[in-house]
Amino acid sequence: MPIQILPENTELQYVQFGEAFIRFDNPEKLRSIKAQYILTTGKYFESFKYFDHYRTVIKNLLTCSQTIQAKIVESAKNLFRGDGSHKFCVHIRRGDFVNHPIFLPSEERFTISSTDYVLKKLKKNHSNLSVVAIGDGPRWVENLFANKSLYKNLASTKVYIHEMNEDPAVDICFGMMVCDSILLTSSTSTNGWWIAYVITPKPVFYRRKNSPLHMGRYQPRKSGALDYYLKRWIPLDENIVF
């Protein structure tokens, strides 16, 4: 579609829309506006409700290229060496989320405790499981799981650490192709969210607390969680996993 410069006398109406973080703003309300052109004020469209009705199309669009798939097959072959276990992925997000005023990074206590908790749940249906740590902070992960023997379910479970690739697309595709289930330990991570979305309906767990500002009793409608996390995904609270 060609770019057009609108004449000075063009009827243009500014509309407050999409201004709230991780909340859905229904586009249907724009239909009642009679202006020839509208300009929305928001920039946050971080809800699956904007596009979930096109999920099949989106999954097809996100199919990894043959080149990337070949890299992942080789990487998985070297990492797992024939291990055919159920791959329970634990997605880690540290980086610039550490000390961020809004986004909560993966934290030590929650990450290892929730991993042990979810393993217990998964073992009810899977006798052969392994943990695959994906995302960033591989050294942080190594130090974290060095004490896995202190946790009942983790103690007897093999832990693999996937080295982060320079190309984010490779890391995302690795998760899409390898994960049989996933835990989002930093639940506002973009990469983690998209991996979880694509592998659904496979089991997805996520940390309900997603911000340092997230205090007091959880209010799903007020926080926007019902717009950001799919209903079938399983939220985890600190009082459950600790």
From TrEMBL:
Protein name: L-Fucosyltransferase
PANTHER family listed in its UniProt record: ALPHA-1,2-FUCOSYLTRANSFERASE-RELATED (PTHR22898:SF3), UNCHARACTERIZED GLYCOSOL TRANSFERASE-RELATED (PTHR22898)
Coiled coil: none
Keyword line: Glycosyltransferase, Transferase
Superkingdom: Eukaryota
One GO CC term on file: membrane
Any single GO BP term: carbohydrate metabolic process
Originating organism: Dracunculus medinensis (Guinea worm)
InterPro entries associated with the record: Alpha-1-2_FucT, Glyco_trans_11
Any one Pfam family match given in the protein's UniProt record, by short name: Glyco_transf_11
GO molecular function, one term: galactoside 2-alpha-L-fucosyltransferase activity
